[in-house]
Amino acid sequence: MSEAGAPETGTIAFLGLGHMGGPMAVNLVKAGYQVTGFDVVPAALDAAREHGIPTAGTAAEATAGAAVVLTMLPSGKHLLDAYRGTGGAPGLLEVAAPGTMFLDCSTINVDEAREAAELAVAAGHRAVDAPVSGGVVGAEAGTLTFMVGALPEDFEAVKPLLEVMGKRVVHCGAHGAGQSAKICNNMILGVSMIAVSEAFVLGEKLGLTHQALFDVASAASGQCWALTTNCPVPGPVPTSPANRDYQPGFAGALMAKDLNLALNALQSTGVAARLGPLAAEIYDTFAAEGGAGRDFSGIITDIREKSETGTSEAGKPGSGTPGGSPADTHGPRP
To answer: Which of the residues are catalytic?
Structure first.
C-alpha cells in the first residue's frame, strides 16, 4: 500500500462499463485503486462518473500509460479488434506502455482467448484471461468467481485485483484455461436448469406441490445449484429470480451465448456430446422468443407453455419415451 492508502498497482484502464463492468470498476475505486474507465455507450460513461470513476475520451486514451488494461467486452471479435486496432487506428497493444498487463474478463471462445494472449505477449505485454461467474448481483457485491488462465507469476500479479471484485479466484491453468473452465461450468448449469425445470413441470402434472418436490430433491440426489440457489419456481428459495417475475440474474441471452461458446468448443474438440448442443438449441429458441432479457431460469415458463400446447418432444418416435422408442427394446427398467 502507498502512503495515501492506495494499492501500488498503477492506473487501471477499465474498458467496458456495462452491467457487469460498471460495478466491478466501482469496487476497484472503493478499494483505493486508480481507475480510468471507457465505454462506447454514453449512458455507461455517465453512470461511471456518477459513481466516482474518471473516464477517458477513447479506449486508447485510457490505455496509454496504464499498468493494467482490464477489458469486459461483449465478444472475442470486440476484444481482438480492440487489441489490433481497426479502421487504421492503432490498437491497444500498440499504444500501451511496454510490459502492460492485459487482463480480459470477457466471456469469449477459448481459441479467441488464446489468440488474444499470443498477440499481447508478442507485443511485449503480459496477458491473463479471467472470465467471471456470479452475475450482476455478484459484480455489485464483490462476490464474483474468477476462473483464470495465466502464467503463474501473472496470476499472482492480478490476484489482489480480482480478490477486490470477487470472493473466489481459481487459477485454472495456462492462457485460455479460464475460458475453458467458464464454458464447461455454464454448460453444466444450462443443462441442469433445463432438467430442474422439466422436473417441476412434471411434478405439477403429477399433482406435486413445488415445496414438496423441492424438499425432497434439495436433500437427495437431485440437489444442484439450479435447484437450491436459482430455483425456477417461486416460493422454495425466496431470493431466486422466479420470485421477481424472472428479472435477471443471469439473462437468457447470456446463457444462450455461453452455451454456443461451449458448442463451438465441443465441435472443435470432437467431444461426442448430446445434452450440451441440445441445451444450446433450447436456449437459442428461448432467447429468440422473448426470453433474452429474462433470467435463464425462466426457461420453465417455456417448458410449461409447450407442455400445454402439445409441442413437447416427449412421446415422439426415437425420443426415448413410449411410442416406439429405442428405449422400449431394452426391457424393464429398475
So the answer is: 182
